[in-house]
Specification:
single chain; alpha/beta; globular
Length: 238
């Protein structure tokens, strides 16, 4: 008879850090919201003597499934190590959407289904703040309610089915005009060029961005694009 207790354990992500570390919290938040299973080792508690925590180790430490150790790890490094980050597939897009919450993903579905080359740029995970909600009861089409994670995963799959590209772990620092196009400058130095840009980040960040965008020299808004000024716009952190 097969001994189930003798099955090899599939290696997962191990994150070692302090509960008071903002960098460790950001990585934990990223992994959780993207549905990645990980073991958390708190050096301020029982994890002080964990084998991965050796003297001189720079925290947070992330040990990837292949054994790679990332000392002083960042969200971008963890995402790249897990194969969750990729360079934009195209040199130019028709529409760049900043933020992959329900509004951003809905815009991606509508735009991509009409044949527009669409890129969705998200700093953390699909679903945005709504993705962390246990039950959403007022979303169209779900009379019994739906969890935020379910809504986010379904919307992301639908957007990608129509050809939209979702770029994860890619905060946008700035949107600048480039002739008759816009360029989203990402924190890692990548530039995404598009004919139109839509701001679909968190409510507070979007309000601040739109106040920054209040300029007479804007393009007329369309169903798929928010007005973006013809001068550089700093994107508020979400």
């Amino acid at each position: 008879m097969f001994d189930y207790d003798s099955r090899p354990v599939t290696p997962g992500v191990v994150l070692v850090g302090s509960r008071s570390s903002t960098d460790a919290y950001a990585i934990r938040d990223f992994l959780t919201r993207n549905g990645k299973v990980y073991d958390w080792v708190d050096v301020d508690g029982d994890g002080a003597d964990h084998p991965a925590h050796t003297p001189g180790t720079r925290l947070p430490l992330c040990v990837l499934p292949d054994g790679t150790r990332l000392e002083g790890a960042t969200v971008a490094q963890v995402a790249a190590g897990l194969g969750m980050m990729a360079a934009p597939r195209l040199g130019e897009y028709d529409l760049a959407i900043v933020g992959a919450g329900p509004a951003g993903l809905a815009a991606a579905v509508y735009a991509a289904s009409e044949g527009l080359r669409t890129a969705v740029i998200e700093a953390v995970a699909p679903g945005g703040q709504a993705g962390t909600t246990s039950l959403i009861e007022n979303y169209l089409g779900f009379p019994e309610g739906v969890s935020g994670s379910q809504l986010a995963s379904r919307a992301a799959v639908q957007a990608e089915r129509f050809g939209a590209e979702i770029l994860l772990a890619r905060p946008v620092d700035e949107i600048v005009p480039d002739g008759d196009r816009y360029v989203c400058r990402l924190r890692d130095g990548t530039a995404v060029s598009s004919g139109a840009a839509r701001l679909s980040s968190s409510a507070g960040a979007t309000r601040r961005a739109r106040r920054a965008c209040a300029s007479p020299a804007t393009r007329p808004a369309s169903p798929c694009s928010s007005a973006v000024p013809r001068s550089p716009t700093r994107c508020p952190s979400t």
